[in-house]
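Example 3.2
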Amino acid sequence: MKAEKSSPRLSYTAPSTESPWSTYLTQIDRVTPYLGRLGRWVETLKHPKRALIVDIPIEMDDGSVRHFEGFRVQHNLSRGPGKGGLRFHPSVTLEETMALAAWMTIKTAAMDLPFGGAKGGVRVDPRTLSRHELEKLTRRYTSEIAIIIGPKRDIPAPDVNTNAQVMAWMMDTYSMHVGFTSTGVVTGKPVHLGGSLGRVKATGRGVYVTGREAAQRLGLELEGARVALQGFGNVGSAAAELFAVAGSKIVAVQDQWGTLITGKGVDVEDLLARHRAGHGIGGSPADDDAFWDVPCDILILAALESQLTAERAQRIKAKLVLEGANGPTLAAADDVLADRGILVVPDILCNAGGVTVSYFEWVQDFSNFFWKESEINARLDTLLVEALRKVWLYGERNSISLRTAAFVVACERILTARQERGLYP
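Structure, written as tokens:
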């Protein structure tokens, strides 16, 4: 059923006009001087390999026909098939999708996974659709992009406002096209349809694990540490649970309805119950701007891109910033944080838990052999800790930030693959 009340805000306040794609290009320009002879291939990273724009007409429940615009971008496939999520959001654009696909290219390489980068999106407010309309939208979108996706070509996954049910519809639609059940065409599916245990909370777990490792290196104890959290969806809520178990206090939470600030710390389980019931976190929009002034030790950005501007970076009180979202920090804000000595664990490491377990799911689908959740979590933790260790050492050795170090490590892997494969024809 459609909601009878007006829909909540679907975007966080982002005063900057800088686009995600321009942020990404700036990041590539900053790492180019460190690439040596591989620098001759760097233009490869500035051009998506393939971008598809599709029209999605569906008949609504009232009999009217509406058209929605959808995208699928494959940024780079040098190291393997495309991998990246699908988001349903009214602010989706081609340029945003290009940037998110590019960050997936960097992320999978930073984690040394055998994937390239891709991303998809449909410009729609899913809260205004009935379940029947949402299924129609998903299936028509899937049929339109079916010409470029596949288990060995491009594998979508859940992202903003999409979930396991949406992935199940995508898998079924693609399977109808090819004439057999193809579980590996998407990841993040229901477990009984070939999904992996541990996938739902994997991204949030990655935020916690990389945050724990970074905090240890900074000499910051998680017991009693104050955490401010932007975003309380799958990523933010899972991270909040793990930090709370470690003894940290969640002193501020901001979601798309408003901001909740408390010096005593919130009851995460109570907040989760409220959120699942559709009541939000009980915060006030009037406190949205005050979120950036909250005294805290750790700031987790788990909402949307372009949230941390230079002005906000001057105000935050944290010692450690964890990027649970993709591209939440603008380049100018990075400079401010560096000048202030605030460590940032970049998105391409911090939120890589989701794509890593998606890789595990993809492998399990091919083999038809599935692992226990404890095995999934253990494998995930090992890969995340090792990836952070390598990037940290590279950064220390070259006196550069974790973001620059992660980009250099990833870009070297991508461009080496490009160089060794050569150009065709």
